[in-house]
Design brief:
With 435 residues, the chain is of the alpha/beta class. The chain contains ten helices and 21 strands. The strands form two sheets. Strands 1, 2, 3, 6, 9, 11, 13, 15, 17, 19 and 21 form an eleven-stranded mixed β-sheet that branches.
Length: 435
């Protein structure tokens, strides 16, 4: 391990912050101790690593980070500007820790929301937490996953029961408040058999800059259940955002994901969707908007382990200024996973000669009775379309805005939360116009 890597990892692991894990949860303490040892035994990612060859986050390693001030105060009146109006519950995490005094909404629905301390008092939920953080399917996430396991101060558990109202929308608002600080949010969602639920995972910064978010979001969708999951990353433009998402799909379950990245100086999102039983459907929609010198990286793996699975993925990017956008998506069809139907498309729009896009769609197939396809395109705004709009009275900026939004719309138009569409539109208007 290099001296720089050792110093950065040590600075994270030696820090102490808000701690809500009960002392009597000895198995959890042991779990974090093992994760700490695993992190210390690994190197930080560098561009010579195949999975990180287009993603240089080495400036982060030279940054001196610390735990956020546990006494830091977030003004609830300012938070309201980030609320999602369709949400029936708004659950606020401050630097990765559940803040009950800032959370709001109905608690009488079929959706149960608990922090780690409360969940550990319920034997069934305690066993669920123990099972889901066992790392059995997540070792490939690497050192930042281990660091999250070693340092999470809380876990938010969301349990969607079969009698939940289809209109229940849980908005998880992750707030980073410290300057040059770090936090490690952890969320576990369980959609029980036959249930329907919508989760919005949202990241913002308030009163802080230069911070690092290192999050883990795990969801388990049981038989016949359906989970809609929207991830909105709108961190401060000076932040580093590292995140891992895992979705386990049981028999005939359905998982729909919309991942939207419009913030942070550098972000990396690893997505792993796993078909755990026969049948099951997943749909991934992604949108990354890069401007300034922003780096936006998305790596996804969709694993078909059993027959009759279906998956579709559409990932679009808009690269402007000197931004760099990376997409690496893999569909893996295991031996015996016959009658798999999987598709993947990556479409990229470059608005500046100084911007870059690196794309690598992949298929890895070990079954012979399957229907799989993938592809990628990179292009610019059509001069003809731009000219047409300008002849209809639109100025240059308005015409480009309209074309950019039309390009992005396919990704977001079928999401169940209309205000998300409006938020994305506002970001396109603010930041994706070529100079």
């Amino acid at each position: 391990m290099t001296q720089q890597s050792q110093a950065f990892i040590d600075s994270l692991l030696k820090a102490s912050g808000v701690e809500v894990i009960p002392k009597e949860a000895s198995w959890l303490k042991e779990h974090q101790s093992v994760a700490r040892s695993r992190a210390l035994a690994k190197e930080l990612p560098k561009v010579s690593d195949e999975k990180w060859r287009f993603t240089d986050i080495s400036p982060l390693y030279r940054t001196s980070l610390s735990c956020p001030d546990p006494e830091g105060v977030v003004d609830q009146s300012l938070l309201k500007a980030f609320y999602i109006p369709e949400a029936t519950q708004t659950v606020v995490l401050i630097n990765g820790v559940y803040a009950s005094e800032l959370s709001a909404g109905s608690t009488d629905s079929g959706v149960k929301v608990l922090n780690l301390e409360r969940a550990l008092k319920d034997p069934k939920l305690s066993e669920l937490v123990r099972e889901k953080i066992s790392d059995k399917d997540n070792e490939d996430f690497g050192i930042f996953y281990d660091i999250n396991n070693a340092l999470f101060a809380d876990i938010l558990i969301v349990e969607v029961s079969a009698n939940a109202d289809r209109g229940d929308v849980i908005h998880i608002l992750n707030v980073s408040s410290g300057k040059r600080s770090f936090n490690h949010p952890r969320v576990l969602v369980v959609a029980r058999e036959g249930s329907r639920g919508t989760i919005i995972e949202d990241y913002i910064g308030m009163g802080g800059n230069g911070y690092m978010v290192n999050s883990v979001f795990q969801c388990s969708i049981e038989r016949g259940a359906e989970l809609a999951h929207i991830k909105l990353q709108r961190d401060d433009v000076t932040a580093y955002h590292l995140s891992q998402t895992t979705a386990e799909i049981q028999r005939d379950a359905r998982y729909k994901n919309w991942s939207i990245s419009v913030g942070a100086l550098a972000s990396r999102h690893d997505v792993n969707v796993i078909q755990m039983e026969v049948g099951g459907t997943s749909s991934l929609r992604g949108l990354a908007i890069g401007n300034g010198k922003r780096l936006v990286d998305t790596h996804s793996v969709v694993e078909h382990r059993h027959p009759n699975g279906q998956s579709s993925q559409l990932h679009k990017t808009i690269a402007n200024d000197q931004s760099n956008i990376v997409f690496n998506g893999k569909i893996k069809v295991h031996k015996g996973a016959q009658q798999t139907n999987a598709s993947q498309q990556n479409r990229n729009l470059i608005l500046s000669r100084r911007a870059s896009v690196d794309t690598k769609p992949e298929l890895e197939i070990f079954a012979d009775d399957v229907k799989c396809a993938h592809g990628a395109t990179v292009g610019e705004i059509s001069d003809e379309e731009l000219f047409y709009l300008k002849t209809r009275g639109l100025d240059e900026t308005s015409a480009r805005n309209l074309l950019n939004y039309a390009f992005a719309r396919e990704v977001i138009e079928d999401n169940p939360i209309s205000s998300i569409t409006s938020i994305v539109e506002s970001y396109i208007r603010q930041g994706s116009i070529a100079e």
